[in-house]
Design goal:
alpha+beta; six-stranded mixed sheet; 386 residues
Length: 386
C-alpha cells in the first residue's frame, strides 16, 4: 500500500473518544469538543494597565487617595483629581487616563506628568464581550487555553479526552538492561515508545514485554482496554511473528497490511471487533519509529478528534535518491539552504534519527528528489508551517 494511502487510512479508521467534561487541570492535552465561548466581558470593568495614578482631565492633578487592589468601587474623580492605582485595579469612575509611576512627579500633593486620553486603561470588554467565540472546536487544550478559560470564569471544559495507548514488546532474544550477550539484542524500541506516545498527545498505559508466544500475545491483546495497542517485533511473516495469527484469532480486520516505504514496510494496522486498534511495528528500531510516525501518529490524531497533519515541503539542494516503488524516509538536518541527509538511515539504525531534525519523505521515482516533505521526529511538534 502506498505510504500516503496507509497514513490516510490509519486516520480514517480511528474513532474519536466520547465527549466529556473535565476540570481545567484534567483538560490539559485534550481537544475542545465545542467552541470556547465567553460568558462574560473581559475585563468586566475599566482597569488600570499600569501602576501609577488614575487621573481625570488635564493636569496638574490633586492626589485625593489610593485605589486598593480588589476594591469594587473606588468612587469617582472630578476634573483635576487623581488617585494612586495598581495594575489591574478598577479605575475610578470618570478617569480619563493613567499616568505611569515612572512618569509621575508628586510635589505637595500635586501630580504632574504626561497624560493622553485613554492611555494605560484597559476598557471593559476590550478583550471579549459576553457570547464571543474565543476558540473553535478542535483546538488542543494547552496552558494558554487553560489560562484563557480561567480568565472568563470557566471551571470545566467540554473535550475529547486523550486516547490511551499501550505497548507490547515481543522477542525471546531481547534483553532490557546492560550489554546483550551472543545471540541476544538490547531492546531499543521499548524505551522509545512511552515518549513517542505522550508526545503524540496520547496517554501511555505502559510497556509490557512478552516472549514469542501466540497464546501470550492473544491474551495480552484481550486484556488491555487501550484505544490503540502497539505490538513490536511480530509484524513480519517469520516463524516467531505471531501478530497476524493473533489478530485472526481475535476476529480483527486488517486495515493496512504492509506499506510501500523504506524502512518500515512490514508495519500493519488492524481494528478489533470492539473498535480498538492494533498497530504492528517492525522489529528493527528505525523501522519501528517510522511505523509509529506513519500509522500511529495518524491514528492518534483522529482518536483525539484532530485532522491529519499536512506535511510542509522543503528543498533538497544535493538531491536524495528515490526508490523506484517505495517512499523513502530519510533522516535530515535543516539548513538555510534546505534539507541535508545525515546518513545512518538503515532499518536497524537509530544514529541517523537521533542526530536529525526530521525525516524527509521522498516519493518513489526514477531518479533523485530535489524537494521532499518533512515528517517531524517529535510527533507533538508543529511541522514548520511556512
Amino acid at each position: 500500500m502506498p505510504w500516503d494511502v496507509a497514513r490516510q487510512l490509519a486516520h480514517a479508521v480511528a474513532r474519536p473518544g466520547a465527549v466529556v467534561t473535565r476540570t481545567l487541570a484534567e483538560a490539559d492535552g485534550c481537544v475542545l469538543a465545542t467552541p470556547l465561548v465567553s460568558p462574560v466581558a473581559v475585563p468586566p470593568v475599566d482597569r488600570a494597565a499600569m501602576d501609577g495614578y488614575a487621573v481625570r482631565g488635564a493636569g496638574p492633578w490633586r492626589v485625593i487617595g489610593h485605589v486598593r487592589a480588589g476594591c469594587a468601587d473606588s468612587g469617582a474623580l472630578e476634573d483635576g483629581q487623581a488617585k494612586g492605582i495598581v495594575t489591574g485595579a478598577a479605575v475610578p469612575a470618570g478617569a480619563t487616563s493613567v499616568v505611569r509611576s515612572e512618569d509621575a512627579v508628586v510635589t505637595g500633593g500635586l501630580l504632574e506628568g504626561p497624560s493622553e486620553d485613554g492611555r494605560h486603561i484597559r476598557r471593559a470588554g476590550e478583550e471579549c464581550k459576553p457570547g464571543d467565540q474565543l476558540l473553535p472546536a478542535g483546538v488542543v487544550v494547552d496552558p494558554p487555553v487553560l489560562g484563557l478559560a480561567a480568565t472568563v470564569g470557566l471551571n470545566r471544559l467540554t473535550v475529547i479526552p486523550r486516547p490511551i495507548v499501550a505497548a507490547l514488546v515481543t522477542g525471546d532474544e531481547l534483553v532490557h538492561r546492560g550489554q546483550p550477550g551472543p545471540g541476544r539484542v538490547r531492546d531499543a524500541i521499548g524505551p522509545m515508545l512511552p515518549g513517542l506516545i505522550t508526545r503524540s498527545g496520547a496517554a501511555q498505559a505502559g510497556v509490557r514485554h512478552l516472549p514469542d508466544s501466540l497464546e501470550e500475545l492473544v491474551s495480552a491483546l484481550q486484556e488491555t482496554s487501550a484505544d490503540l495497542v502497539l505490538v513490536s517485533g511480530s509484524s513480519a511473516s517469520g516463524p516467531a511473528d505471531h501478530l497476524r495469527p493473533a489478530l485472526t484469532a481475535l476476529g480483527a480486520e486488517l486495515v493496512v497490511d504492509g506499506v510501500a516505504c523504506r524502512p518500515g514496510h512490514p508495519q500493519a494496522l488492524a481494528q478489533l471487533p470492539d473498535g480498538r486498534l492494533v498497530l504492528g511495528l517492525p522489529g528493527n528500531p528505525f523501522a519501528a519509529l517510522v511505523a509509529f510516525l506513519t500509522l500511529g501518529v495518524a491514528a492518534v490524531h483522529r482518536l483525539r478528534g484532530l485532522s491529519l497533519p499536512v506535511l510542509p515541503q522543503v528543498a533538497v539542494p544535493g538531491g536524495i535518491a528515490c526508490h523506484p516503488t517505495s517512499t523513502r524516509l530519510v533522516p535530515i538536518r535543516l539548513t538555510p539552504q534546505g534539507a541535508v541527509p545525515v546518513g545512518h538511515g538503515g532499518a536497524a539504525m537509530l544514529r541517523g534519527p537521533a542526530t536529525a531534525d526530521a525525516l524527509a519523505v521522498v516519493a518513489p521515482g526514477p531518479a533523485e528528489a530535489i524537494a521532499a516533505r518533512l515528517l517531524p521526529l517529535d510527533p507533538g511538534s508543529s511541522p514548520w508551517a511556512g
